[in-house]
Amino acid sequence: MAKKAGVTQTGTNIQEVKQQNAQSVGQGQYGTEFASETNAAEVKKYNQQAEAKKAQNSSK
Fold first, then answer.
1. CA neighbor of 18 nearest in space, from 28, 32, 9, 8
2. What are the start and end residues of every segment in region (Disordered) (predicted)?
3. More confident residue, 2 or 16
4. What angle do CA 52, 56, 60 make, to 5 degrees?
5. Which stretch of DSSP H or E encloses residue 8?
6. Domain of 49?
7. For position 17, what pLDDT does the model report?
8. Does pTM surpass 0.70?
9. Within a domain: 36
10. Rg from Cα positions in the chain
11. Interatomic CA distance for residues 49 and 39, integer angstroms
12. What is the tally of structural domains in the chain?
């Protein structure tokens, strides 16, 4: 049986796998899933309240 260059014994294209791995670097498996469920306005409101409390506590 002749061996093809760049292909494993099971037929996996090595270059294709390397390319997919390079594209997925830095992208968490759940990154977009959780980001889409986040309510940005609610987070901003919560952060403002936390900052106001912090300012109140530091002035005492």
1. 8
2. 1-30
3. 16
4. 170
5. none
6. 29-60
7. 86
8. no
9. yes
10. 25
11. 16
12. 1
Partnered with residue 13 across adjacent β-strands are 7
Q: What is the pLDDT of residues 8-59, one digit of tens each?
A: 888 888 888 888 877 776 655 555 555 567 788 889 999 999 999 988 888 7
Tokens describing residue 22:
């390079």
Provide DSSP, 25-39: TT--TTHHHHHHT--
57 is a domain residue: yes
Distance between CA atoms of residues 6 and 16, nearest Å: 9
> Residue 9 domain-assigned?
no
Q: Which residues contact 30 (CB under 8 A, 6 or more apart)?
A: none
**pLDDT score for 32:** 56
Rounded CA-CA distance 24/31 in Å is 11
